[in-house]
Write a structure and sequence with these properties.
4 helices, three-stranded antiparallel β-sheet
Length: about 250
C-alpha cells in the first residue's frame, strides 16, 4: 500500500512538472524569464536616454503580431461590428498584421483573449535580450532582415516574413513591418525618473507608446530602443500590436 501511494505521489509530481514546463497560456507565446536587462541608449533622441538597467518579472509574449484573421475572428466572437475603429484590416489577407487598430481596440482584443498589451519595458527586453543589442539580431543594420523603408516595399508583409531577423527570445517582426502599441502612456523624459523594477510608464494621461518602427520607418527608427508615440485618435495603417501576459 505504501509503495502504491508513493508511486501515485510520484506520478502526480511528474504530471505537475510536465504541466508547468511551459507557463505560457498559448502555443505561439514565448517565455521571457525574470531578470535584468539594458533599456534605452545613450545616443540618438533624448527620449531614448539614458541607458539604464531594468529588472522585469517573468512574462510571456506572442512571437508574432496579431494577424488580421485573428482580429476579425475576435470581432465576430465578441459581437463587435466589423468596422469598429476602422476597416483597414478587412481587405487584407488573414496572415497580415492587423493594422490600423486603435489602442483601445488593441487593448480590448488582448483582454478578451485573457492577455494584455506588453509594457514598453517588456517589449524592449523581448526585442533585444540582455546584451543591449541595437537590433533584434545584433548591433549591425542589415536591410535583408526587416521590412522598413530601406526595403522599398511600402506595405506590410505576412507576419514572420523575416525569420532570420528573430530576436534573442524568438520573436519576429520586432523591427519594421508594423509598429506596435504598448500599454504605457508615453513621456519624453520618463527614463530619467522610471523605477528600476517593472516600470509601467508615465502616470500622466498622454499619448500611448509605439515601438519597433514600421514598413515606412528608416532603420534608425526600427531599433530595439527607439521610442515613439501616437494619440490613437485616428486609425494608423502602419500600427499593429501583439499581446503579453504575466507569469505567476
Amino acid at each position: 500500500m505504501v509503495k502504491f501511494q508513493l508511486l501515485v505521489g510520484l506520478a502526480f509530481l511528474l504530471l505537475g512538472a510536465a504541466c508547468t514546463d511551459d507557463p505560457c497560456p498559448q502555443e505561439h507565446m514565448v517565455l521571457v524569464p525574470a531578470g535584468w536587462f539594458l533599456m534605452g541608449e545613450n545616443d540618438g533622441r533624448r527620449s531614448n536616454q539614458p541607458q539604464h538597467r531594468v529588472y522585469l518579472d517573468a512574462y510571456c509574449i506572442q512571437n508574432t503580431e496579431v494577424t488580421a484573421g485573428e482580429f476579425t475572428a475576435y470581432l465576430a466572437a465578441a459581437g463587435r461590428p466589423a468596422d469598429v475603429g476602422n476597416h483597414i484590416w478587412l481587405d487584407k489577407r488573414d496572415s497580415l498584421p492587423a493594422i490600423g487598430v486603435l489602442w483601445r481596440d488593441a487593448d480590448a482584443y488582448c483582454r478578451w483573449d485573457g492577455l494584455r498589451l506588453p509594457t514598453e519595458a517588456e517589449w524592449e527586453k523581448a526585442a533585444r535580450g540582455v546584451d543591449g543589442r541595437r537590433f533584434p539580431w545584433g548591433n549591425s543594420w542589415d536591410p535583408r532582415l526587416a521590412n522598413t523603408a530601406e526595403s522599398g516595399l511600402e506595405e506590410v508583409l505576412p507576419v514572420g516574413s523575416y525569420p532570420a531577423g528573430v530576436s534573442p527570445y524568438g520573436l519576429l517582426d520586432m523591427a519594421g513591418n508594423a509598429a506596435e502599441w504598448v500599454a504605457d502612456y508615453f513621456a519624453f523624459n520618463y527614463y530619467q525618473v522610471s523605477p528600476t523594477h517593472n516600470p509601467i510608464g508615465s502616470t500622466l494621461v498622454l499619448d500611448h507608446g509605439l515601438r519597433g518602427g514600421s514598413y515606412v520607418s528608416p532603420a534608425g527608427q526600427a531599433t530595439t530602443y527607439f521610442r515613439d508615440s501616437s494619440h490613437s485618435a485616428l486609425p494608423n495603417p502602419r500600427v499593429g500590436f501583439r499581446c503579453a501576459v504575466s507569469v505567476k
